[in-house]
Specification:
By secondary structure, this protein is of the alpha+beta class. It has a single domain, classed as Lambda Exonuclease, Chain A. The chain has helices spanning 24-32, 34-42, 51-66, 76-89, 92-98, 104-114, 169-187, 210-230; strands at residues 4-8, 11-15, 122-132, 138-149, 152-159, 192-197, 202-206. A five-stranded mixed β-sheet has the order 3-4-5-6-7. Helix 1 packs antiparallel against helix 2 (34-42), helix 3 (51-66) packs across helix 4 and helix 4 (76-89) packs antiparallel against helix 6 (104-114). The protein starts with a strand and ends in a 78-residue tail after the last helix.
Length: 308
């Protein structure tokens, strides 16, 4: 699933691809449509982000850089300056996608209405965490921000869209429960969860219990078991439904008259991975430009922080 380059004895060599693992978005993809999961996690078909998804990614990158500054420097003016840097780092096609007014300043202003970043103590930003469930099911995800305080750890998840309706709440909470489970597996603690919905200036706080996370782990184990059954032959079947309307791969789906590309085989031949403890970012070190590409996009235009 992609390659990375590493330096070894002065020469650049290819590192082996990372084994597949479940992330919040990929788990949600499989539950929605197994073929969608295959297109994104196995075929890795390219996707053009929507303006809303790209806008959300820009805001995430700005807030990541903002919280890398010294607390006293985390002011609205600094955020606007960082937004200019992130927008300038986009390639011309992506910058054109956002139009003359990218709509970032308004979302940042709402962020400052939700919290004062000068009072925040964060251990890490864009933190990659990997773990295994008791049955060996591999999990992987990126946390927008991990805060520390007298009450323990808090996972902060930025959402560029509005707070979900009652009907859509499950999809939103699926992701943050995933992050809570990752920390429970790697650190032995159940964190508090905080979602910041910038579009309507709404903050939601959840306090999952260990029992809730145990039940959630069983759901994820069942998802991974289904994926491993389909992996050897590529038997990832479409699940037509309302989501087909905005699916970027509709023209390749047999349920709509399309033809999928030939199955490339399961990455690494065996669907397994090893647990890796969370590695916090170095405090005070801004992430390098350019802005990271959107990892995934929901129909609402929100970006989902995780890895394939």
């Amino acid at each position: 699933m992609g390659t990375e380059t590493v330096a070894e004895y002065g020469a650049e060599v290819e590192a082996p691809p990372r084994p597949p693992a479940l992330s919040p978005s990929r788990a949600a993809d499989f539950r929605r449509c197994a073929l969608l999961y295959r297109f994104r996690a196995v075929d890795r078909l390219p996707e053009t982000p929507s303006p809303g998804a790209l806008r959300g990614t820009v805001v995430h990158a700005v807030l990541e850089r903002l919280h890398a500054l010294e607390p006293a420097a985390r002011e609205p003016g600094a955020a606007r300056a960082l937004a200019g840097e992130v927008l300038d780092a986009l390639d011309p096609g992506e910058r054109a996608l956002l139009g003359e007014d990218p709509g970032v300043d308004g979302l940042l202003a709402r962020y400052f209405a939700l919290e004062d970043p000068r009072t925040v103590t964060s251990e890490a930003r864009e933190l990659r965490v990997e773990a295994e469930l008791a049955d060996g099911s591999p999990l992987r995800g990126y946390l927008d921000r991990l805060d520390t305080g007298p009450g323990g750890l808090t996972v902060v998840d930025y959402k560029s869209g509005p707070a979900p309706s009652v009907h859509a709440e499950g999809r939103t909470l699926f992701g943050v429960r995933f992050y809570a489970l990752l920390l429970a597996r790697t650190r032995g603690v159940v964190p508090r969860l905080r979602l910041l919905h910038l579009a309507d200036t709404t903050s939601l706080t959840l306090r999952p219990t260990a029992d809730e996370l145990d039940r959630f782990a069983r759901v994820l184990a069942a998802v991974w078991a289904a994926i491993t059954r389909a992996a050897p032959t590529g038997d990832f079947r479409p699940n037509p439904g309302p989501g087909c309307t905005w699916c970027p791969f509709r023209d390749r789906c047999p349920a709509h008259g399309g033809t999928p590309p030939p199955y490339p085989g399961w990455p690494g031949d065996t669907p397994a991975t090893s647990a890796t403890p969370a590695t916090p970012a170095t405090p005070g070190t801004p992430a390098p430009l350019p802005v990271p590409r959107p990892r995934s996009a929901e129909p609402s235009g929100q970006t989902v922080g995780d890895a394939p």
